[in-house]
Amino acid sequence: MPHTLRNDLLELQIYLPTENYVGSRFDWTGKITTVTFNKTAITGVERTDIKAGEHMGKGFYNEFGIDSPLGFEGTEIGDWFHKIGVGLIRKDSDTYDFQRAYEVQPAEFKVTKNDTKISITCTSRLHNDYGYVLHKEIELLSNGFRIGYRLRNTGKKCIETSEYNHNFLKVDKDLIGCNYHLKFSFSLQPDHFGETVNPERKVVLGKSDFSFLGTPKEQFFFSNLSGGQSVPAQWELLNNSSKIGIRETGNFPTHSINLWGWTHVISPELFHSISLQAGQVTEWTRTYEVFSLQ
């Protein structure tokens, strides 16, 4: 059963590490599957065309090392590499694919919780000279929630990785379309996007925002929205039907921002780059605000 954080406006349902999703991609610490605001859902799911619900992304799931997990390149096929927040993953080919289901040896998890927050610590084994302790705290605020991260390098090798929150968003039962407006605090750099997938041309790029001409039937994707420039880690999604807004703010600058979506979900992604020598510790936060539109 999920742990619930609740106040007069918000309700968060958070599954514990070995409950519900136990795949090899997303971080198991603090899986926020559903969030409601004034009893209106603001979260969606990765896919609606398959029934494998326990293997899909939901709500506010995050991931470390989407392109190359910790130690993957130096690991022999058949040996194990680290996926931060999950455990050890068996390498089965020379190329890492985040969508593939890998064999997992779970890390060690410890959970403490109360009515306003939940804290989860993930302790890895020392393997191939890599090791870490990840501590995550999810705290309910009066108008949102805050996710605090603390990562310690307990191994002998440097940790070079990235972390992002996938943010599977949908307001109530409203499909992605004309009622949605996604805003950023910087100018988009379409000439420097890494990838642009917009087959139906229903996603419209403004100077610093995205809007929609209708509901996309095909997946859309835009990468490197800032053109590699360091910009504030923030986005704001408005839904004009339910009159609800959602805002994420990270306390770090970001050089990498992606946007993915489909008929039923939209996912702005703020990437946080991490470089951590042996024995070092780093901390960062992501704060989410949910509000009514005037």
Structural write-up:
- The protein has strands at 3-6, 10-15, 31-37, 40-41, 62-64, 80-83, 87-90, 104-106, 108-113, 117-123, 132-141, 144-153, 159-165, 180-184, 195-197, 203-205, 209-212, 220-223, 231-239, 244-254, 257-261, 266-270, 272-276, 281-292.
- The radius of gyration is 19 Å and the shape is globular.
- It is mostly beta strands and 294 residues long.
- A hairpin with a 3-residue loop joins β16 (203-205) and β17.
- The strands form five sheets. Strands 9-10-11-12-24-20-19-14-17-16 form a ten-stranded antiparallel beta sheet, with no helix packed on it. A four-stranded antiparallel beta sheet has the order 1-2-3-4, with no helix packed on it. A four-stranded antiparallel beta sheet has the order 15-18-21-22, with no helix packed on it.
- The protein starts with a strand and ends with a strand.
- The chain has one domain (3-292): Beta-galactosidase, Chain A, domain 5.
**Strand arrangement in the largest pleated sheet:** 9-10-11-12-24-20-19-14-17-16
- H/E element order: EEEEEEEEEEEEEEEEEEEEEEEE
Structural class: mainly beta
Q: How many separate structural domains?
A: 1
Instruction: Tell me the number of strands.
Output: 24
Q: Main β-sheet: number of strands, strand sense, barrel status?
A: 10 strands, antiparallel
Strand content: over 45%
Distance between the termini: 36 Å
Count of separate DSSP helical elements = 0
Mean pLDDT: 96
What is the 3D form? globular
Regions with pLDDT < 50 over 5+ consecutive residues?
none
Name of the level-1 CATH class: Mainly Beta
Give the name of the CATH architecture.
Distorted Sandwich
Radius of gyration: 19 Å
Helical content class? under 10%
Q: Could you name the CATH topology? A: Beta-galactosidase, Chain A, domain 5
